[in-house]
Amino acid sequence: MIEFHDVCKRYATGQEALNKVSFSVEEREIVFLTGHSGAGKSTLMKLIMLMEKPTSGEVMIAGRNLGRLGSSHVPYHRRQVGAVFQNHQLLFDRSVFENVALPLQICGIHHRDVARRVRAALDKVGLLSKENALPISLSGGEQQRVGIARAVVNKPPVLLADEPTGNLDPELSAEIMELFRQFSEVGVTVMIASHDIELIKRMNRRVLTLEGGQLTHDGAMW
Amino acid sequence: MSKKTQGAKMSPAKNASKDLANQRGAVQSQTPFGQKFKSWRQHHRISAVSSLLRLLGMPLQTIMTSLVVAIALALPTTLFIAINNVQSLGDSWDASPKISVYLHTRAREAAIEGFQKELSDRADVKSVEYISPKEALASFQTMAGFGNALDLLEQNPLPPTLVVTPSAQAATPAGLAALGQSMSKSALVESVDMDMDWVRRLREIMVLGKKIVTILASLLGLGVLLALGNSIRLAIESRRDEIVIVKLVGGTNGFVRRPFLYTGAWYGFFGGALAVLLVELGHQSLAESVASLAAAYQSSFALAGLSLFDNLSLLAVSTFLGLFSAWLAVGKHLNEIEPT
Q1: CB spacing of A79 vs B250 below 8 angstroms
Q2: A5 and A115: one domain?
Q3: pTM of the model as a whole
Q4: Residue A97's domain spans which residues?
């Protein structure tokens, strides 16, 4: 589902963010992406989101070479990739409901179905009672979960999560991870960037480790 | 996107979780074209309403911007109306050109009668009306307060006058010139005054005036484009975060653009409506004075304003102008905003 072939990314500043990174993630797989900050995790995710383009090499998502996508196809590609951002990226002048509804409205889903699917997603993350709240009135963890609901509401085949448990207590983190596990069971490919070694250990999944832009480890952690 | 469209009709939440699990899959659900079109229309409606609410939410800025548009449109419109009125005034003379033939004051009645008959027999003359000095004086006295001034005169200074209406064939500039020339050869004739001359000059001036107004209107239209473009640019800037997020979750440029296009169209519409109002106010305030002035000249001329069609056209033009300036501004600024 996600394939990287010798991907290099050098920024205009000369910083080499990724160096010859190759790996392949199958459908329904959950992988963790670890590494120190600046190791290239964010760059890797930005390449999948088409927020950046590789300097060389190929990124393939669902068999499609992203390098060959014209700019008019970028929005349609992004609809296939649900993303949970570290800084949440919520609209603070809209209710929780409207934030989660955004991807569906963008896809042109009829508003009757929008309501049903938004409720389903909010229920999943345990925020159904907060649908009319403004994000500003929510805790960091709740905002994170709104971001997760928004990422999955459109049933994307790929889910990216950048530090999704960064603001959550261990109990909530475990719940979120359980959520990701459920998503993968119904066919979603999940990639999670995380520092939380304990959590990664507990999940016992495949781990990709980046160091200085190079992939130094690929496989089960222990 | 707007709070209005989301709301009441929702399925029970209990089934929601099951729903999500059932629907989830690696394959994105496909939406049939008919439904896509429906939701495209839905987003248009939402964009139109939400951008309108946004504008109404900041009334001061909306009024200021709309006033700029209104003044820029009302000015050339008023000038156009003025020119059209003056032209219609000219045209009403133009329709029946008359030549005033002033005779020597000492011309004898018999001679004048003979000359009048001679003229009436000409093929290029339709009718000849004789106004004696006495009649002319009488009509002057009833008009426009000349009465007292004329009383001061010891003798009637007005010449006997023949008002010649040329036949339809002769009512061309060349035909009139020829007629006038041949009449002025008569010993009885002091001078020939062709009403046509000033009508023709007036018409030339009006053509020039229209050109000037067109240029002015284009410049002001350009000003509207720039002013509205700037307002739209500010609107885009203030919603930068939102644009980034919409693009991140897969919003197309069209989706992002739409609310701003509606914002521009609304500015244009409000500006146009205010312009209609301004022009109508100007018309109302002048119409009475013009009517009494026209009455003083024994004319039934009434100041024409804008017809319903003109008003609707003005609205349409200004709405389009707003849309167009938004389109330009959005095209320039929206591509600069990309998620990083």
Answers
A1: yes
A2: no
A3: 0.72
A4: 86-153
